[in-house]
Records
---
Amino acid sequence: MYAVFETGGLQFNAEEGALLKVPHLTEKPGDTISIEKVLLVKDGEKAFMGTPYVIAARVEAEIVKEGQAEKIDVYKFKRRTKYRKLTGHRQKYTEIKIKKIVLPEN
């Protein structure tokens, strides 16, 4: 079984048992979440495509851990003014494990 879902403005491919890093969610590790914004579900020969979302389909996942991605450097520079500034940024993420993909009733 295969699904494409949306969370945090990004789309992710999911199969049961997969570990994914998604943008930071408010739930804590150990919680179970249900993602309703499913764009596509495929089960063998049957496929359901949404316009934009598949009604009554959902992806159930468990939150494994939270963390921060690798640091990226942000460098600002203006020529001939002796202006240079270096800052860093670490994006927060939540790692989830896909438990179950629920198909629509049709």
---
Amino acid sequence: MADTYDVVIIGGGPGGYNCAIRAGQLGLKTACIEMNDTLGGTCLNVGCIPSKALLHASEYYAAAKNDFAAMGIKTGKVEVDLAQMMAQKADAVDGLTKGVAFLLKKNKVDHVHGKGRITGPGQVEVTAPDGSKQTLSAKNIVIATGSEPSTLPGIEIDEERVVSNTGALSLKAIPKKLVLIGAGVIGLEMGCVWSRLGSEVTVIEYLDRILPGTDNEIAKEAQRTFKKQGLTFKLGTKVTSVEKLKTKLKLTMEPAAGGDAETIDADIVIVAVGRRPYTEGLGLENVGGKTDRRGVIETTDHFKVAPGVWAIGDCIAGPMLAHKAEDDGAAVAELIAGKAGHVDYDLVPGVVYTNPEIATIGKTEEQLKEAGIKYKKGKFPFMANSRARTNHETAGFVKILAEEGTDRILGAHMIGVGVGEMIHEIAIAMEFGASSEDVARTCHAHPTLSEAVRQAAMGVEGWTMQM
């Protein structure tokens, strides 16, 4: 039997590898188990990173095709080289996965290739790709197995014509007609990529709105903007079947509230109806661990599943976001090392990397109203921001919500170019319990897009100073 590890982590995604790196930095003997060929999990291999590579490239193409001429830039005919676009995406992923492997090695973490299963307290069995097995002994086991795409009954995903987010990142040709099932973050990002590249995109959503959980005013503005960009929306609609014909796909759908069915043709269908925890077959029952009906691991204390067993990231409650998993991982490593470890899930920013971007943190107006919390709001449009006007990127606005009486910032919601970077000013402000006046009285460089954040903060008390 090999020496006992201080920490054995099942899963090498953002939560798992950050937990491993932090544990290594703290001097803990650590092993990280990953069943896939490369580290990085869904985010790095078939999620956050490759999707941003395609979003960035497609934005360049759309700008060259639609916007350059108005700015006095002549390019001639602009064409898409999809093979090269996919190659640069793969190159970015390859470099980053190798970087993660380097960091594990640098921090003396053992990378174990295989699928991990808990067989009892302090015992993790690893099945290698060739079927061989080994058992690792651990004082602490951290479950960081992440999540996988959710599916719909009766719809078979083949990752060729009916695809999940994984297949949507690797299409071999630009589809003429693309249907997207689900108007959440993943779906809208993928819909925008292929729409920019020339696909006719129809978005079908069961709910009567896009971006569930997002501030309603932001969601409405986003839908208007995406509609102008060419996306078609069918809201309050459910897909009942996808028939695979020789040359096309035929979708049958009907109103979610009931009504007559209709059909629509497509070349490609992307199923993006959310994600579910990847927790089956982990052997949780062998240590008294439990999941709810969705597969979310129940934690009885801060990240604790059972004595010596911890869980982090997408497989526990909280936002299913890579950066939340990263913070979970670091916090658990610190708790295991006897330090303080904590993650405030109310202060996890969320970003949708469309164009314009959408960024949010804290409470929405709807949540504050439901909780009976009195608040004030300040709102500032990018149309009135000097840099946005200069850049011809005036879509969207910034909204800041502050508690009435105390002026403490309770939430911020933004839609506009670059707001995925701007949201962190408010994240830091909220972390330190700042008021809207604190942000309003902080000098911001002019002309910058970030001035819109300051102006929105000024607007909470009604002293906005720009247009």
---
Amino acid sequence: MISGRRAYRRHLPHFQQDNRSYYITFVTQDRRVLPPHARDLVMQHILFDDQRKMHLHTAVVMPDHVHMQMTPYWNEAGDTYGLAWILKGIKGSSARTVNRVLGRKGTLWQDESFDHELRSDESIRQKCEYIAMNPVRAGLVSSPDDYPWLWREWIDRKENKT
């Protein structure tokens, strides 16, 4: 892979530049609602790649979709990990695990994901705070701190190190 700006197209155009942070959303097939234990599993798969292929800033697993803010890491060849490759790993492994636990087969996630490259004038922390408020805006909790499927680096990374 060549460093710099890359693009690929599926149904939506996708662009990736080195040293950039990305806001990503992916949705369950047919907006299927994930039960609580499935949301636990999805979060585990997201967290598995943190500090391996990406620097995770925040993630929230909603009943039928996921929001993440992350910055891809560099691989051994000196290129940034591709968003498509990172997401394929998270979505593929979580789909296998969730389907196995739920005793079902088939597609769990919609094929396409939405990604937005943060511009230089956008604040990562502000975007993360926006993501963290998603369960509140959806009426699931009154405070983001009450939502069990929310991970924020400035809180959870500190808690995990103690």
